[in-house]
């Protein structure tokens, strides 16, 4: 249990889910912004206009200073300057507010689309990928990372856009005033560039380490909860507690490092601020001394720089949150951009869409020994194959490889595009009986549902307290195992897939319901290609062909009669099963 979590922490790139690179993240964001690009152009225009208007007060104050010094400032001048400042404050604020609102609309929509895609993709990720990375990683990406990006967006995006516009517009304004002022500021800018460079090198690494540690901790807690019975059964409480403590401590250490880096950023920003003001003041003094600038112009320059310091600091300050959000964003996009399937290994057979064909299939769990080897298999459209074998022979793995939830390490799998699987763990979703039945057939009418229930011998489900409106699953009416199996079979009937894979679909049945479930399974399989992972050999006998697996290899193949006649492995299993049935019948109470 501990292994997967510690591997994810030690080597996130090797065993975790993929993390998108900078280019991939930018490409995906650009793709997601489709439909909002006009709005983004409006954001840019309004931002430039707003920050431009913001320069009016420094210029007006500079003019006022010069007039006062020259003794030409009357009450009219003061009133005019005041009016200009008031108008610019109203207009500038309106423009910036519109920029922020428009940008917020754009990022909320883009983030919602990204979150939707993340959930969609998370549901269909290849199982081997999730098993290797650990579910904790996936949960952390769809919770912690989504929260980190959603929390950061309202502060980062306005700060980023307003700061960028302010810097550009102020530099142009300073150059228009007297070019040496712009040069003085430009000379100090490398200090900020240095701070930014240091931060970009340190920040992402520190934040990624913090998030990875959080993922590993989530995985530990999740595994302790899932394996609660085992933990109690083997008295592993203290060991698990220590493991969770160790992973929590790793989070604390990395969080401390992240906060230290943040404090160092603050100190360097203060240094940049002092240098900027000093540079403009010195240049102003020299220019005034040589009659190249007025005191009013120097005042304007200092006010512009003071106005600029806020946005610059804000920009560098949010780089912190921006880095953290970008790290989360690249983890979210890493999931979204996992390729949907590997077309080279699992695909539909051209010309025979409902047939199944496997050639040279080999499968290993996590690089271990082969669990399936040299599997060649043909099921014609409409044919039905039973897979039998001892426990651990590889039957479930074969079903998952054919269904496409596991990808073979080598060989090819052709299967119908529309494939549905029923596993032993039938999940009843919280919701009405109707919702549960129409999961894979959202357009089905109540009439379709009734027909499917009758065909599969599950009409008894209609007798639940509120019929199709009965709320089942967590918090609702609880179904027996046999009822849940019937529901799954009726759901599969409604989905009307070309290939149905029943993996131990009747294994949970109590003996009283076994015959009913066998009949229901036969009704579902009628008219479509079917694969039955048969533990009850009566199911195998009803199929056209039987495939016998032993330690991942096909050891026999043929019809029931052929295999019984051949006297091999299947014949032995059949004799043992028939004998077991007779003993059970003799031991059964007579009525
Ligand atoms: N997730 C997994 N990781 C590693 N090994 C696994 C995993 N799942 C199954 N195995 C191993 O693969 C082999 C085949 O397992 P599989 O469940 O496919 O057999 P099976 O024939 O369906 O067994 P059963 O009838 O008991 O369900 C077994 O040795 C099993 O321990």
TrEMBL record:
It is a multi-pass membrane protein. GO terms for molecular function: ABC-type transporter activity; ATP binding; ATP hydrolysis activity; ATPase-coupled lipid transmembrane transporter activity. It is found in: Cell membrane. GO terms for cellular component: plasma membrane. InterPro entries: AAA+_ATPase, ABC1_TM_dom, ABC1_TM_sf, ABC_transporter-like_ATP-bd, P-loop_NTPase, Type_1_exporter. The keyword Magnesium does not apply. Residues 41-324 form the ABC transmembrane type-1 domain. This is ATP-binding cassette domain-containing protein. It comes from Nakamurella alba.
